[in-house]
Design goal:
Shape: globular
Number of helices: 12
Strand order of the largest sheet: 1-2-3-4-5-6-7-8
Helix content: 40-55%
Distance between the termini: 21 Å
Structural class: alpha/beta
Length: 270
């Protein structure tokens, strides 16, 4: 999905919601545990229930890799199900990869070729040669970590240099020498509020992937006030607040209701 297709999808569906498939087998409804692949079965029902209300899905690799081959089969089945049934949805693999060049090349091959995801989160700490191998794939997206919402982000991301520029600002400026608005997005946590205004001073046209709306307490209205562009420029992720809206036989219906609530709010904003 290239940039224009992404924009068209958002305005056609009137949503910029991404549903995070952070599927924890200890939290899914008990009746699913008897199926051959409980993780995929949960994902499948969540996808079917929410697909009309969102334009992207974001499985986090941590929730699949922890179960070894069994978990990765569930991940692969989820990606294939989306590709076969809902191809107009962006698939973001939240993997936060990033290593020296030849290893990043293999990570890129794994996620972009073997699993055929559309976008991949990448950690920029090791610099240009750890990121550019991911940028060689046409119509694929690198989602670079910029300003996250976790407590530990203060340890490094907000450190100021002698000129008063914070580290995340240097990441935004430097990385635009490697990629562009057609193949690079940035992760910015929803709890950052008015700091989106600073973000937009450095990258006025890039898409931002924004986790943290919902269970983490981020404000959709505030994110849009400071971060939205004329082309939307936002993909707002919600995971737990949607996929764990209920834990009984009606979990999928509850997820659909939670997604629709966000969808309606986004449609009004758009």
């Amino acid at each position: 999905m290239n940039r224009q297709q992404l924009i068209d999808t958002i305005y056609t569906k009137k949503t910029f919601l991404c549903v995070g498939l952070d599927t924890d087998i200890t939290k899914i409804p008990q009746h699913l545990l008897t199926s051959d692949d409980p993780i995929f079965e949960f994902n499948k029902q969540i996808i079917d229930a929410t697909q009309e209300h969102c334009m992207a899905y974001k499985p986090n690799l941590a929730f699949y890799e922890c179960y070894g081959i069994r978990g990765m089969r569930a991940f692969e089945s989820t990606i294939r199900y989306l590709k076969d049934n809902y191809p107009n949805h962006l698939i973001i693999a939240d993997a936060k990869r990033g290593d020296i060049g030849n290893r990043s090349k293999m990570y890129a091959k794994t996620l972009f070729e073997e699993y055929d995801v559309d976008a991949l989160s990448v950690a920029p700490y090791m610099g240009e040669d750890s990121v550019t191998p991911f940028l060689t794939y046409p119509d694929k997206w690198v989602v670079l970590l910029a300003l996250t919402s976790n407590k530990g982000s203060f340890d490094f991301q907000l450190i100021q240099d002698a000129e008063g520029r914070q580290l995340f600002e240097s990441v935004l400026d430097k990385s635009q020498q490697w990629g562009n608005k057609e193949n690079m997005m940035y992760v910015v946590g929803a709890t950052r509020g008015s700091m989106f205004e600073t973000i937009r001073q450095h990258c006025p046209d890039h898409f931002l992937l924004v986790p943290g709306v919902g269970a983490q307490g981020g404000s959709l209205q505030e994110v849009c006030q400071y971060g939205m562009t004329d082309e939307c420029g936002l993909i707002v992720n919600s995971s737990r607040a949607i996929i764990y809206a209920a834990n009984d036989a009606y979990f999928a219906e509850a997820a659909a209701d939670a997604a629709k609530k966000v969808h309606d709010e986004m449609a009004a904003i758009l």
